[in-house]
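We were asked to recover a plausible sequence for a given structure. The inputs and outputs are reproduced exactly as logged, with field labels preserved.

PROBLEM: sequence recovery
POSITIONS: 361
GIVEN STRUCTURE:
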């Protein structure tokens, strides 16, 4: 009789104190009449709740039950399943009397839509035939639910309190949390279109609500994802055949945000004469069809701002300030140079090109 009494007390008696306005993830107000708070010492004292928690640990409601968090009066099963785990306040939601779950699953803009459970999907919401809600996990057949004012429990679908019934329907989210900030290579960015360079990059996404499956990333033309653990951080390379690429970000399986990255225009560097003699003047051209086409995205000439001479171990021997005459840049070599060297040009858009030069041969 001890356990049956605890079950009755846990299910039903609530306080109707005002909890303020609560909205679903899609912004629909939950009726204030559906919100409640457990009283400090009733319907169960701390001693009763601790005894109930011990019974769960001892397998009275089924051998699969594992207590994840201790008992608390802050929220109930519906508050956890439909509201708390999506980042909202910890609240109690009354389903039977006031239909508190209804705005989450139906009406003008529901945050969840009914689906079919295959046994291994995580973060589906479960409506039981009795007055209970749970959340599925990726651990096959295991659910997590809050048991009234008692603890948060991981359990098999049918290892629950008498009166909860059995799972009757499953629901998946259909909302997109707002992005609060996006960082590219550690720098805060804004907008969906960003200029960046070829090569490896890191993006961090921060969002307003905790989505059920986390963000998932997919690459568009020109980008390749090299590491993604659905954590809100993605590493990618930007090295496609075109001048742009990007990332598409989906929440709950639906693409909601997209970022396109434009490669700053590079240059194909050509020098002459090559081979050259020491003390000779080397010319870098930006005019001939075979040489650098130093043109940026809006077809303006991409000027050279610095030229460096490197030895065969890539050590800088000398830096030159470019002597520009029209679209030609020239540098004069020092006497005594012989062998293989490299000229490294840095352009206005930040791109760098290197060309091998043979001297004195």
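RECOVERED SEQUENCE:
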């Amino acid at each position: 009789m001890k356990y049956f009494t605890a079950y009755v007390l846990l299910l039903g008696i609530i306080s109707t104190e005002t909890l303020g306005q609560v909205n679903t993830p899609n912004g629909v107000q939950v009726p204030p009449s559906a919100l409640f708070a457990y009283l400090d010492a009733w319907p169960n004292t701390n001693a009763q709740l601790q005894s109930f928690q011990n019974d769960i640990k001892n397998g009275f409601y089924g051998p699969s039950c594992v207590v994840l968090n201790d008992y608390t009066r802050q929220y109930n099963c519906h508050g956890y399943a439909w509201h708390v785990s999506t980042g909202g306040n910890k609240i109690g939601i009354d389903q039977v009397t006031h239909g508190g779950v209804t705005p989450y699953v139906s009406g003008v803009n529901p945050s969840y839509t009914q689906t079919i459970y295959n046994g291994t999907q995580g973060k589906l919401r479960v409506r039981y035939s009795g007055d209970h809600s749970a959340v599925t996990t990726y651990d096959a057949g295991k659910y997590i639910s809050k048991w009234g004012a008692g603890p948060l429990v991981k359990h098999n679908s049918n290892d629950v309190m008498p009166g909860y019934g059995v799972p009757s329907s499953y629901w998946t989210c259909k909302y997109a949390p707002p992005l609060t900030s996006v960082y590219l290579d550690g720098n805060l960015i804004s907008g969906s279109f960003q200029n960046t360079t070829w090569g490896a990059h890191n993006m961090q996404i921060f969002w307003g609500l905790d989505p059920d499956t986390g963000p998932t990333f997919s690459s568009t033309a020109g980008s390749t994802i090299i590491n993604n653990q659905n954590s809100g951080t993605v590493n990618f390379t930007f090295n496609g055949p075109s001048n742009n690429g990007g990332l598409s970000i989906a929440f709950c399986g639906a693409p909601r945000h997209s970022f396109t990255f434009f490669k700053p225009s590079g240059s194909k560097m050509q020098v002459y004469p090559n081979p050259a003699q020491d003390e000779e003047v080397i010319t870098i051209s930006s005019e001939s069809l075979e040489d650098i086409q130093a043109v940026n995205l809006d077809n303006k000439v991409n000027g050279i701002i610095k030229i460096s001479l490197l030895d065969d171990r890539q050590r800088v021997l000398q830096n030159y300030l470019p002597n520009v005459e029209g679209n030609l840049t020239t540098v004069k070599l020092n006497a005594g140079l012989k062998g293989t060297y490299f000229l490294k040009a840095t352009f206005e858009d930040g791109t760098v090109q290197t060309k091998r030069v043979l001297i004195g041969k």
